Amino acid sequence: MNEFDAHVFFGTSPDFALIIAGMHVSEQSGIEVAHWIRTQLAARSQPTRLGAIVIPEVFPGRGLEARAAEWTAGPARWDGGVGGDYREYKDGRHPNRHFPPPGKPLAFLDKGILKTIDGKDVLDGKTRKPIQQIAEIRRLIQVIEAVKPVIIVSVHGKRRRTTDDLTNAANAGTITMTKDEIAKWTGDAIKGVNFTGIYVDPRYSPCHPTGFDVEDCKFDLAKDPAYPNTTKKGVVKQFDSAISTDGQADDALALKIAKAVKDATLVAGNHLTDAPEVVHYAKEPAGPGFSLGDWGPADVSPVPGSTSGARPGAPVFTIEVDEDHESWAFLDGVPYMDENGQPIPQPKRPSPKARPAKFDKARSAQLQDYAQAIIAACLT
Asked: Residue 331 and residue 83: Cα distance in Å, rounded?
């Protein structure tokens, strides 16, 4: 079961948003948000402005295994690290870094091997062998090249940050908290560390001929509040620090999505009451290769002799859902509980009152909050 399902909803505009989840199958909360989006779109009496293609699970086969493990582990252990076994492949490949270099089409990876911007094979850090691209990611890229979405939304999950995360950020020089300050930390979101929230990789032009780090091509680090330790005399921090005009519009839309989430604690990392707000990721260690957020927002030119894959860049909005666990309103994509937490009668079941034994109504409401915000801010 490796083929993913795509749910298509037409809008009043010919343009589409692509909404995906399950890039990391440990983040089942994001998968449930995508299911809520497609069920809520299906229930609408009027179409949204933008059409939507919703792919709730990029890796459905691995998702089945993850849900079985989550059912056994429970939310406390699942969010606490058990799900880490499902973030990457056993051979160490990171699914979220299997995209072509920015500006390049899928055809650029002509041998199915990841490449650098200058066309060299990306090598595994341990084996020094070329990294073979994951098949499901190739299919996702084919969808993007065919549909040419104007917006891409990728729904994830974010475990709660700990003092270890703050210590790592301090050691990396991205925040200035002392050991004593970290020890006294009460759990509030800290600028320079990525907490739950709505983030965007805005439209941009690649500016480096080599390397994997393209953040400074996307936005001005000295202006960006996600980089509190990167400063320049006379430069004021601002949430819309994207370099391009289109990118600044993308920043504004990210903030609009965050404000559309009714429960502000679910978007603590956006610092909505602590201006300037944050809509970009803070710097974190990353493996070799390029992410969807690196590849998606850049205009793509075809390889010489071909027109395949050419498309305008689309902003990539990453929804970092608070915690990784689901509510069990869905079982393997089948809705068992409605939006009000009432059981949905199932065919061939002895009782319409049957429901998942672990259903969490409050958690369901949280995940619906994200879904409704995405629909309201991105599609209507």
From this structure: 18
Question: Within 13 Å of residue 180, how many CA atoms lie on the same side as its CB?
Answer: 0
Please give the DSSP secondary-structure letter assigned to residue 176.
Answer: -
Evaluate whether 20 touches 34 at the Cβ level (below 8 Å): yes
How many angstroms from the chain centroid is the CA of residue 171? 26
Residue spans per domain, the chain: 7-379
Q: Which residue stretches of the chain are H helix?
A: 28-43, 60-79, 135-147, 163-172, 179-183, 215-218, 245-260, 292-295, 361-374
pLDDT tens digits for 141-150?
Answer: 999 999 999 9
CA dihedral 320, 321, 322, 325 (to 10 degrees): -130
How far is 57 from 45, CA to CA, in rounded Å?
26
Each residue's pLDDT tens digit, 196-238: 999 999 999 999 999 999 999 999 999 999 999 999 999 999 9
Structure tokens at 70: 């989550």
- What are the structure tokens assigned to 244, written together? 């391009």
Q: pTM score > 0.90 for this model?
A: yes
Give CA 132 to chain center in angstroms: 22
CA–CA gap between residue 62 and residue 1 (Å, rounded): 9
pLDDT of residue 1: 43
Rounded distance, CA 34 to CA 15, Å? 19
CB atoms within 10 A of CB 118: 10
